[in-house]
UniProtKB/TrEMBL annotation:
It holds the Pfam family MMR_HSR1. Residues 108-291 form the EngB-type G domain. One of its GO terms (cellular component) is mitochondrion. It comes from the Eukaryota. PANTHER family: GTP-BINDING PROTEIN 8. This is DEKNAAC102598. It comes from Brettanomyces naardenensis. The lineage of its organism: Eukaryota, Fungi, Dikarya, Ascomycota, Saccharomycotina. Signal peptide: none annotated. SUPFAM superfamilies: P-loop containing nucleoside triphosphate hydrolases. Residues 55-90 have a biased composition (Acidic residues).
Length: 328
């Protein structure tokens, strides 16, 4: 990552300081990291159906209030007094619903969505983000050689402070219902703080990547770009290659440029180090959630082997924690 920071004019996240590196490493080392949910239906996200219903009730209540105020001008004094009572009751209901909605949002952690086409390496990246040594690199997200292995939205709780959400890959191997699920999440999820779009450093962008970028821009979703597999680029041509990819794609046309991250999440014998760029991406994610990068602010729920084993047993017994997949 430092190689790109010193030689490229691209918008790259600043170098991680020693104090930040220490705080970030301690945070991920100590954090209890668990998979909260595997979601195949957007409304199955805990609390989301209730939140959507409350928003609809508030919207309907405000519309009714406006209609009532117009009709009230035409009524006589007696009817006007009755209307005042009814309007007051409606306002009380709206205030109550807004209060419930605020509490519902307060109970939700900030979330970061990872997107990318099939087989771009999202699951491998998640494992590199959540672990600090190669022995545990496959602890969390399941990794397979075949494309399309991530079937649904997988929510990883990071120390009770934020969630990383792994999404199904898009493209030729993706399914329509998976695309609709991710689109619903992008449209409706209020606690999402940022989206990280993963691209293959060697191959660059294809038509599906550009379509996703257009959708993110139209929805007003904040996003950054993560170029993965930088070890696949020929030695000595990394900067030139990546700048050409950006300059000759839709990325160059964006009015607001995203931050660019360059990572290598797998072991390699090439000069670019294993886990290159991981610290910078961790820093960007923490800051996107509005958290300060210091030991006093980053105080996670700490990991416990006993607690993790207990959670695994509870998941096996509680079928509601995993929602059945739709049929093709």
């Amino acid at each position: 990552m430092e190689h790109f920071q010193t030689r490229s004019s691209m918008k790259i996240t600043p170098k991680v300081s020693r104090s930040q590196e220490s705080a970030i490493s301690s945070f991920f080392n100590e954090s209890r990291i668990i998979q909260d949910w595997s979601i195949f239906n957007y409304e199955e996200i805990p609390g989301e159906r209730k939140r959507l219903d409350l928003e609809n009730e508030i919207s309907e209540g405000v519309e009714a209030e406006l209609e009532g105020s117009e009709e009230k001008e035409k009524d006589d004094d007696e009817t006007e007094q009755d209307g005042d009572i009814e309007d007051s009751e409606k306002l009380d209901d709206i205030t109550l619903n807004r209060s419930q909605l605020a509490r519902s949002r307060a109970n939700n952690l900030p979330e970061l969505l990872l997107m990318g086409r099939c087989n771009v390496g999202k699951s491998s990246l998640i494992n590199a983000l959540l672990t600090n040594n190669r022995q545990n690199v496959k602890t969390y997200a399941k990794v397979r050689q075949r494309a399309g292995y991530t079937l649904c939205l997988n929510f990883y709780n990071i120390g009770g402070m934020f969630r990383i959400v792994d999404s199904p890959g898009y493209g030729q191997k993706g399914k329509q219902w998976q695309g609709e699920l991710v689109f619903q999440y992008l449209q409706n999820r209020r606690v999402m703080r940022n989206c990280y779009l993963m691209l293959d450093s060697k191959v660059g962008l294809n038509q599906y990547d550009e379509l996703i970028i257009n959708n993110l821009v139209q929805l007003g979703v904040p996003f950054d770009v993560v170029f993965n597999k930088i070890d696949k680029i020929p030695n000595g041509h990394e900067i030139e290659h990546l700048e050409n990819l950006i300059d000759n794609s839709i990325l160059a046309e964006l009015k607001i440029q995203p931050r660019y991250y360059f990572v290598n999440s797998v072991d390699t014998s090439k000069g670019i180090g294993y886990r290159s760029g991981i610290s910078e991406l961790r820093l960007g994610m923490i800051e996107s959630c509005g958290l300060s990068v210091n030991r006093k602010s980053l105080r996670p729920v700490k990991r416990s082997r006993e607690a993790e084993e207990k959670l695994k047993r509870r998941k096996l017994k509680n079928v509601k924690m995993i929602v059945n997949t739709p049929k093709d």
